[in-house]
Amino acid sequence: MEKLTLVVMAAGMGSRFGGLKQITPIDDDGNFLIDYSVYDAIRAGFEKVVFIIKKENLEDFKNTIGKRLEDKIKVCYAFQDLKNVPSFVKVPETRVKPWGTVHAVLAARDFIDGPFAVINADDFYGFDSYKIVADYLLNSKDESEQIAIPYPFCKVDSSYGFVKRGVLFFENHYVKKIIECNVGYEDGKVLAKPLDGSKPFFIEEDHPVSMNMFGFKNSILQDLDNYFVSFMKENQAHLEDVEALLPVFLEEYLENQKIRLTYQTSKGTWLGMTYKEDLEEVKNKISELKMNGEYPEHLWKIN
């Protein structure tokens, strides 16, 4: 049986949150949202976790979550480095933020030797989602087929403003189209504003949207590499602020019929911290989940 790897994208700067939200404690034991993600992944059968981080944050990660996990699952660290780009790219001196989620996954390439799941470090997806991904990856044999785990928008919105979400459209049990948007409430309706500047559109409150949780076969790494090289070539005049995003990659490869993307909408709880004001809500919800018996009082053994 193939071993499953969890790839955690944790190199984002958290600009709207106002700090390094990936290592912000959300319970009395000092655990982060990442702790809960890995806890659920272990329960679902994942045997290795790769944290994609900035090199300067390595010690912070090792001394906190790394220390808590090292005897429970194999832990690896990959660095998303601005300079790790094709040789023809001249990185602008003003460039600060990483090159996006496609580049993040490629940074972990050397640590991925089989099927893998990708998640955001600052999102809580719930056990149900990890079980769906694990079952799919262990049973699907089609290398060209991947899986997305969307959520109804009303379960993944923020009370404090618009949020970036991939809006999914389906046909015959497969994702037909993904439109990366800023999504939020306007005059009581849910408005999706495409990041490419095309015309905004309304969606229903329960419309499925991507939270960057995907299950991938190993072969997709070559597709990601090909896409990133092409992306950098096409955007050489705009390298100050462009990002290569997983939903945009998937949209292009779906349109060109290079991959198939199945999906299963999660019934689990999602929590996230887009804005600093979200933190208190997340803490309260985690406490509630513990009271309901979904998680132990102490996530990890306390020495």
Question: What does the model show?
Answer:
This protein has 303 residues and is an alpha/beta fold. It has a single domain (4-291), classed as Alpha-Beta Complex (Spore Coat Polysaccharide Biosynthesis Protein SpsA, Chain A), CATH 3.90.550.10. Helix content is 27%, strand content 25%. The protein is built from seven helices and 15 strands. The chain has helices at residues 33-44, 58-69, 101-107, 127-139, 220-234, 246-255, 278-291, and strands spanning 4-9, 46-53, 74-79, 116-120, 123-124, 145-148, 151-152, 163-171, 174-186, 189-194, 201-203, 208-210, 214-216, 260-263, 271-272. The strands form three sheets. It has a seven-stranded mixed beta sheet, with helices on both faces. It has a six-stranded antiparallel beta sheet with strand order 7-12-8-9-10-11. Helix 1 crosses helix 4 and helix 3 (101-107) crosses helix 5 (220-234). It is globular and about 50 Å long. It starts with a strand and ends in a 12-residue tail after the last helix.
